[in-house]
Design a protein that fits this description.
Organism (chain B): Rhodovibrio sodomensis
Structural class of chain B: alpha+beta
Number of strands of chain B: 18
Helix content of chain A: 55-70%
Largest sheet of chain B: 5 strands, mixed
Order of helices and strands of chain A: HHEHHHHHE
Subcellular location (chain B): Membrane
Number of strands of chain A: 2
Strand order of the largest sheet of chain A: 1-2
Protein name (chain A): Cell division protein FtsL
Keywords (chain A): Coiled coil
CATH topology of one domain in chain B: Beta-lactamase
Number of domains of chain A: 2
Radius of gyration of chain B: 42 Å
Distance between the termini of chain B: 137 Å
Shape of chain A: elongated
Oligomer: heterodimer
CATH class of one domain in chain B: Alpha Beta
Distance between the termini of chain A: 106 Å
Largest interface: A-B, 33 and 38 residues
Strand content of chain A: under 5%
Number of helices of chain B: 20
Keywords (chain B): Carboxypeptidase, Hydrolase, Membrane, Protease, Transmembrane, Transmembrane helix
Amino acid sequence: MSVVRLSLVIWLIVAGAVALGLYQVKYEVQRLEEELQQVRSDIRQDRVALHVLEAEWAYLNRPERLQRLASKHLDMGPTGARQVAAVTALPPRISDAEPAVRLARAGSGNDAGMPLPQAKPWSLEQPMYARAEQAQEQPQGRQRQGLGAPLRQARAQVAARGPRTSQRENTGANENTRATKNNTAGQVGQSDESTRLTAKSSPPRSTQPKSRAIAVGDVLIQVGIRQ
Amino acid sequence: MSRRRNAPCAPHDGTQRPAGPVRRALRLDGTRKEVLETGRTRLLVAGIVFAVAFSAIGVRVLDLAVLNGGDTRDVATRADGPPPVQTRADIVDRNGHVLATTLPVAALYAEPREVDNPAQVAHQLAPILTESTAAELQALLDSAKSFVWLDRNLTPRQQYRVNRLGIPALHFKQSEKRFYPYGELTAHAVGYTNVDGKGIAGIEQSFNQLLKDSNQPLKLSLDVRVQHILMEELRAKMQEFEGIGAAGLVMDVRTGELLALASLPTYNPHEPGRASDDARFNRATLGIYEMGSTFKIFSTAAALETNAVSLFDKFDVSEPIRKAGFTIRDYKSKDGKLTVPQIFMHSSNIGTVKMAMETGTEVQRNTLRDLGLTRPVTLEIPEVGTPMVPNPWREISTVTVSYGHGIAVNAVQLASAVGATVNHGRRHAPTLLKRDPSDVGPGTRVFSAKTSRQMRKLMRLVVEYGTGKNADAYGYRVGGKTGTADKPDHGGYGEAQISSFVGAFPMDDPRYVVFAMIDEPKGQEHTYGYATGGWVAAPVVKHVIERMGPLLGIEPRPVKTPEKENHPLLVNALSEDERVASN
């Protein structure tokens, strides 16, 4: 009897479980079907909405409208041919890596010293030349904030670590003669910090004619400022 | 079951209950036994039936689950829903900006009898339906009809707002409408459809079937930015010189693609019915015009190509030419002799005619034919004008055709022919559809590379020192040719003019041809009364190039124009005496 009852109970449980499972699956399927219908209809609606929005986007992007809005709200104009320059059209540039490399070597006392990375002489708001001049005029004044600042500090520290050697004096002198040869030297890539370091052993630079230049890039398109 | 059945049964004895498990047998006799037997048999039958049924289901389940039911029906392929309702395909520009699309719109109608308070409903609807005023709406709602249309085209936003009013007497009917986001900007090229959605002009007409059947947008060669620039500059000059119309185009000489195709005045493609015939007339393709001096490009190129004339040959232009009752004079009479570059630069009719006479009628005719100027241009829109060519092509025709009279072509033909001349002599058929760069063939050779090079130099000369100075866009080495033609007027030529300029840039390896034409410009005070191509159309080309050059990434390279006396093409032009004297 006990065997009979056990099997009966098992079968009843199985049957109950199957019934429950079937019930669950059936309603799950039904729910999923409804969801699918809903999703399909949503997709259809979204597609239509997307289509309408695309048309609206095109309508709002009419060149005539953009031009009107740009001239009303922006300080910019279309790029002109005069604002596009090629690298070859730029004035010759003195190698800016050299002095810093030498400084780095002098500081570490290592001939195979590492060249330090340089701040890229590029600026949107102000050409590099002008910035270098400004920094020279007020050396202790406001420190420029920017990507180059930490680098400059690091470089100054490296330079200050070792005692002043004749090598560095030479570096400064070299640089200075180059600077007088070409009025753009020493300002293009040379940081103002290292310029100041060497400036102590060289005549003041106020005699240099001030130079201005357009920014540097491969082929750089500057943002056009409406005149 | 069997165990129970075989178990021996004993009569139940209520009084004697054994202490342990005792096997008892139960024997049944008579009717009782029969009933039980019957019941057992029925149970058995039912059990078999159920067993068969369940095994059938089991087999089927196995079949479906394991053996795939023998029939592989993939039910999940359309999980992303059925394809959207087939509508007319979009037309897009070369960068994918939508030029024409079909939008679902709702048409709003009302049942006036169900409206309780027409005045209030009209008042509520008026700010939403911008097309009509509250008074008009009220009149409609007050009518005794059972059905009135209030607005045929509601945007989705308008529909939403109307819905939000919650007025039960208002109903919507869903329909579709062709919409042109850029409106009149590309109206002439794209065209328009009628109320049934059938294309009846432009690309809409010629690709009607394709647009109906396809789901893929049709990509045109147009660039809306360039189109806008061209339209704006043409419109400005047309107004400045009080012209009656204008046309222009920008063509990629390496592929034949038209980046812009403009005709002014233009129209709103949503309401073509309201536009005048003049506005719907496509001056750039359907209009054929005697182009005037721009044809000297082809006359000179033909002369140089056949070696009938060399670059430094001199022609006497002091005497007017009289032929068959015509007298040909120059705008500015030059004394003495001119070399070919000078003739071209100053646009001397007499010099060009003399060159054409050297070249001959046959060569001229064949050259113009090879350039595609004698037959209608193959363009993808139905509005294409058939050129008017002299028939028969007599000697006098050769004379007039050499400077662009007696032959009328449309702007696309002219630009395409100029494109062939500057593009190393290879012609690409003009097209309004975007061409895959790999699809572009080598083109048909019309001129040799040498002739093309010479012609580019001559065209640059025109802009540097000649009649086209006003087209010299900084940095883009523009070359071109001005054209000022008298419009035919009652069998003769009247005062009205067509002033045009066709230019190409950058001249060392041209990418684009830009053509501008103003119909009947009037001379202005600040141009000293002139309304010639150099004054009217050349500045348009200049401005268009200045604006589109940076946009399309053409590198500007400022070139220094040498003093006229030092230009290699003009040095030899000075007479021996002059050179000796200057030394």
